[in-house]
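call fold(seq) -> tokens
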Amino acid sequence: MPNKYLLSIGYGIKQQLSERGQLIGRMIVYSMVIALFSQIFKAVEAPSFQFLYFGMTQVVTLSTFLVAFEIALDMQKGQITYFLISPVHYIGYRLFHALGVSTVRYTLLILCYLAIELFFNKHFPSGFLVGVISGIAGIFLYTLLSVLLGMISFWTKDIRPIVYLNLTATFCFGGLIVPLDDYPPFIRLISFVTPYPWILWWPANQMAGNSQPFYYFFIWLFWSVVLGAVVLFFYRKYVRLVARGEG
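ret:
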């Protein structure tokens, strides 16, 4: 019997592949943004590293599936209660389904990234393989954050402001356009005590060929464990409330 969570990933992949229009639109948007910023970087005589870096941060953000809204909808409709008697854990199902969706998006956008890089700079990115792996790690962490925001929806009801705040924090503290190395020291310090650099800054630096210390992986692992534990805490709290008839 196939693993139930692998089936969740497969379901996410099939669902995303069926939405061809969205995939094509995502690739077009990505290409347009990269083409626009390539001209901006050229005008200000930015180093080639900047182009590589920015291209990768866009890949990660456009690949991640915002599962928070799916979870919030499940809570509003009471769908989570069906998973309480199911052999599939709700958090595991939603997490792996989201990763399945992201797998399709990430594969296509990485291919776009590589094609654009070969077209503009005429060479293969030196940190491509390590960058791809780090990008997967960043997407996983970003998805965990999205799952957490979805679980919070039971108490906050409308999570849209929190989701948008999280997006803003990701862009600012993750270093969406400018690497964190160029931030003022105080802002850089604040950024590095959050999980956001390991979503964007770390994968983008790896893809741009800037070798990163190996212990960065353990920092990413630390944040993955912490966020996973917090997600499970809120889920179990929700289950207890449902069991008492308060959900």
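The mean pLDDT is 89.
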